[in-house]
Amino acid sequence: MPDSSPLRIVRPPAEEPADSRRGKALSVQDKRELFKSLVVHSLDAGFLRYSRRQELLRIAAQLGFGEFEACLMIAEAQFHSDQIDPAEAGNLASYDVTPVARGVLTTAQIAAALIAAAVVDAILILWLL
To answer: Average per-residue pLDDT in the chain?
Structure first.
C-alpha cells in the first residue's frame, strides 16, 4: 500500500566543499578574474608594494600568464579597483592552477638565439677576412 502521507523530507542542497573544487580547471577568463581580485586584495591604500607585486607575478606565472600580460592585469586591477571584489590568496589554493608547459617556446627561443649568434659570427668572420 503506498504511503499517502503529505509530508516528505526535503534537504537543502549541500554547499560544495573546498576539496571537491581542487580538481576543477579554471578557464582563462576565470584565471584573469581571480588574479585581478588578488591584486585588489593586495593593494595598500591604493598602492601595491614591490614585494607583493613580485609575489603576484609569481602567482601569474603559476596561472600561465606571461610577465607582460600580468603587468597589464595589475594595472587594470589598480585602475578599476573600486569595481573588483577583492579575493584572498586562500581562494587560489582551492583550485587546480598547475603551471602551463612552456618548454616548446623556450626551446624555440634558444634555437633562434643560437642561429642569430651563428649568423653574426659568420658576418664578423667574413668582414675580418
So the answer is: 75
